[in-house]
Amino acid sequence: MGPLRENSLLGIVFTGGESPPPELIKRLFAGQAKGAMTAAADSGLTAAEGAGLRPDWIIGDMDSLDTLSRLDHYLPERVMRHAADKDYTDTELALSLLWEKGCNELWLVGGGGGRIDHLFAIRSLFERERFPSRWISPAGDIRCVEAPGQTASGELALNLEAGALLSVFPLGGGPWQALSRGLKWPLDKVSWDRGFFGVSNVALTGECAIRAEQGRFMVIVPGLPKV
């Protein structure tokens, strides 16, 4: 799915809900995510451990963790317990923690299924000034690309199966402008607006790229990622 930005310190948050298969997570950490700093948000710990990983940090109110005995295998200073009545979700707390630890590129793993409001809450994180760049769920590989700047390269290169579908949604306040190559329906002349989207585009040969000239975009590739 393309290399990390130069000088990036990658952080990965395992969040609750349905997670990609353990074998996919193992391949991810053997390749693209090798050396990443990790945090488990509450029951995200179950997914991490299921893939044979020990998160660097565990954070949340632990109300959805299957058994609190999982925490006994970690140093107390690596477990951050919060009250259930709090202003931020466990996922928000985990993201903030990894940003504070110096990560400048963050991915989410998990968050599938479950309550629809939880799904919308995760999607809303990508509208913020500081946002994750990738969300790997059982239903899709979701990436963000933003116009070039201090924290963005502006281009997302994808290596998919020939004929793979992808959809593009504008994020943030706009204005938006995008260029593309390798897509059946080029994005170059699309007039984006809030609430507009492009679904079921096609990566003709599998090799394609989307460049944000203005604004930020969410690119969704249905299905499990190629790692």
Indicate the mean pLDDT.
92
Strand order of the largest sheet: 4-3-2-1-5-6-7-13-9-11
Oligomer: single chain
Broad structural category = alpha/beta
Helical content class: 10-25%
Shape type: globular
Query: How do the SSEs run, as a string of H and E?
Result: EHEHEEHEHEEEEEEEE
Query: What is the first-to-last residue Cα distance?
Result: 7 Å
What radius of gyration results from the CA coordinates?
A: 18 Å
- Pick out the low-confidence regions: 1-5
Strand content: 25-35%
- Put simply, the count of helices is 4
Largest pleated sheet: 10 strands, mixed
- Count of extended strands: 13
Plain-language structure description:
- The chain has 4 helices and 13 strands.
- The chain has 227 residues and is of the alpha/beta class.
- The chain has a 10-stranded mixed β-sheet. Strands 8-12-10 form a 3-stranded antiparallel β-sheet, with no helix packed on it.
- Strand 1, helix 1 and strand 2 form a beta-alpha-beta unit.
- The longest helix is centred in the middle third of the chain and has 11 residues.
- It starts with 9 loop residues before the first strand and ends in a 5-residue tail after the last strand.
- The relative contact order is 0.17.
